[in-house]
Amino acid sequence: MDEGWVERGGARLHYLEWRPAEPDGHLHEPSLFLLHGLSSNARVWARVARLVPARRIVALDQRSHGPSDRPDTGYALEELVADAAHAIRELGLGRPLVAGHSWGAATAVSLAATHPELASGLVVVDGPTSSFSRFMTWEQAAERMQPPLPVYPSLGKATAAQAADLGEAWGDDLVDFVSAGLVEAPGGGLTPTLTAPVRLQILRELYDFQPELLFASVEGPILLAMAGRVWAGAPAEFVEGRRRSVGEVQELRPDAQVRWYESHHDVPLIRPAELALDMDRTAVAAAFWSLAREAAGLAASSRGGWSRPAQGEGGEWDAKDVLGHVSSTQAAMAAVIAAPPQAGNEGAGAVAFDSSRWNASQVRRRKERTPAELAEEMRRGSEQVQAALMAADMDAPIRIGPYEGEPLNAAMEAMLRHQRGHLAELRDALR
Q1: DSSP state, residue 120
Q2: Does any domain span residue 398?
Q3: Domain holding 331: CATH number?
Q4: What digits encode the pLDDT tens for the residues 148-198?
Q5: Range of the structural domain that residue 205 is part of
Q6: How confident is residue 238, by pLDDT bands cut at 50, 70 and 90?
Q7: How far apart are CA 391 and CA 413, in angstroms?
Q8: Distances (CA, A) of 38 to 29, 106, 195, 201, 206
Q9: Is there a single domain that holds both residue 86 and residue 48?
Q10: What pLDDT, on the 0 to 100 scale, is given for residue 17?
Q11: Residues of 335-368 as b/e, b for ≥16 C-beta within 10 angstroms?
């Protein structure tokens, strides 16, 4: 793990970064960009990051959190989104999969909806899926979410308090996480980096936030990674409303995937392995969505040239044939992922998959479709890929197709390289 700083508007923002220790020449894309919750810090993601070793991962300490600067102002949601967007650009992350925990999910949702050029998809980790004002008054919210800030006599006492909260999920690897969230208190001891006045500013923004207006604008897969448990004594109407609001997101975005973890609010600490796997699945789906987005851009910007020769399979395809091939491949991916074992189709009598014949037949079937229609088929295929991946064993062997027998995770990356190669051919042909 490395760390560094970016600066925006005079505020220095700290970040943590994880890169593959031994890159194999095929760094998995997209990268991950992670945002912590209120009174937390970037180290809340350390357990998850260690379980996604093939991707570049950056976790930002938002202002007044971790070692980042603590200005008195700049906590409006648009400012926090601008901080995150600046970090993505400065660090060259391209279009990462953006994930936010709790309050960080508000920044993540806003970023993904308003800056699709900077976000390939969205993961909401037990964050807001609808307005808090639907469930409680501002006075109730302020009382619930603004308890007195604690002062600890020592780091040992602070870690003991966190250990008591987490129970079996606690481990000594979290001592640095606890330490990163504390500063020296004016009267001695240690207190959270977030002051009461700043916390109140953030809470007011969070209370007024309306995420339900934004999900439809996200250009990529959405995962709602929700905690199945709430705090002791939570009002029944809050629990019911929370479940209902998740269902409403799915009505807005039928492709959105939902996970309910056997966990309290701190899912990245309590269920890191499950969350890491689901985020990685979503990242694979985001990569296919990005291919569809690029194809749509080519279809919209090109004023012809689709009959120009392109390399393709066997060197006989024109540019639209190549797009038809890419589209048919993406449309078939969900079926490939979900294919069961083929009983009686193994051994000496098995018939090998003839990829050239299959590809040619699929291209012929798409001859009359427009480039825009083919790009839309790719997008629909991407939605189906995410749903199939969420139900799949990523280590299980592929059962059909040219990558038969390879583990699903490796086969997906090989297929993404295949698709990217053909889109590069398209770009060259359409110049």
Answers
A1: S
A2: yes
A3: 1.20.120
A4: 889 999 999 999 999 999 999 999 999 999 999 999 999 999 999 999 999
A5: 2-149+194-280
A6: confident
A7: 18
A8: 28, 11, 11, 12, 10
A9: yes
A10: 98
A11: ebbeeeeeeeeeeeeeeeeeeeeebbebbeebee
